[in-house]
Amino acid sequence: MQFLPDYAIYKPAKSGNGSGAQFKLTVKESEGNKGRVVFLEMGKQKDKDGKQMDWAAKSKLMMALQITDLQSIIHTLDRNNSYDRNTQKMTIGCELYHQKEGKGNTILKLTVNEKQAGFYMTLSYKPENETAEDKYGSKRAIGIPITPEESTGLKIVLTQALIKVQCWD
User: Fold this and answer.
1) Which of 60, 63, 102, 112 could pair covalently with 43 via S-S, beta carbons 3.0-4.6 A apart?
2) In whole angstroms, how large is the CA radius of gyration of the chain?
3) What is the pLDDT of residues 56-99, one digit of tens each?
4) Residue 83: which residues within 8 A CB-CB, separation 6 or more?
5) Residues in contact with 150: Cβ distance below 8 Å, sequence separation at least 6, in sequence order
6) 134 secondary structure, DSSP code
7) C-alpha distances in angstroms, 143 versus 150, 160, 163, 164?
């Protein structure tokens, strides 16, 4: 399996409650399209000095982004409207749900940041049984603001990743 360089956004905070996001494109040539995926990992700040994020397996959250996921994120980063089935209105943002039997739900939300320019991305995990803890941990969420400049870079990187995942490179 070939791992290409990560695209990362880090937001340390003096209070120690910062976070980081890493997008990793993996290529496993022997599996064709199924071997090409972008992994999103999000971790919380490890300490108050802000020099490290906690990427330990029990601490970080992870989601594998396939073609339709990448399309939704790119569409949102372009600030295109999408139809929200819950509110039955046009909105800018996307929610991606991944559910695996026996492993709970992972949800990615990308919305316009109401407090400042740009976007806000949240990755959350909920075990199948909300009161229980499974091998992936307990219910938790990690969020990170994305500036307009970072959203431009992310859109470019994910567009290139989409080309690779689709095997058009």
Assistant:
1) 60
2) 16
3) 888 899 999 999 999 999 999 987 666 666 677 667 789 999 98
4) 89, 90, 91
5) 9, 118
6) B
7) 15, 24, 27, 27
Count of C-beta atoms within a 10 Å radius of residue 111: 15
Kindly state the tokens that stand for 90: 């046009």
Q: Where are the alpha helices (DSSP H) in 29-169?
A: 67-77, 148-165
Pairing of strands 61-65, 104-112: unpaired
Burial group, residue 99, by CB count within 10 angstroms (0-12, 13-18, 19+): exposed
Domain that holds residue 92: 2-165
The CB density around residue 54, as the number of other CB atoms within 10 Å, is 15
Write b or e for each residue in 143-168: b if 16 or more Cβ atoms lie within 10 A of its Cβ, otherwise e. ebbbeeebbeebbebbeebbebbeee
Q: At 81, which CATH number? A: 2.30.31.10
Contacts of 42 (CB under 8 A, 6+ apart): 19, 20, 21, 22, 60, 61, 62, 121, 123, 142, 144
* Dihedral of alpha carbons 4, 55, 141, 33, sign: positive
Amino acid identity for residue 20 in this structure: G
Predicted TM-score of the model (pTM): 0.83
Provide the domain count of the chain: 1
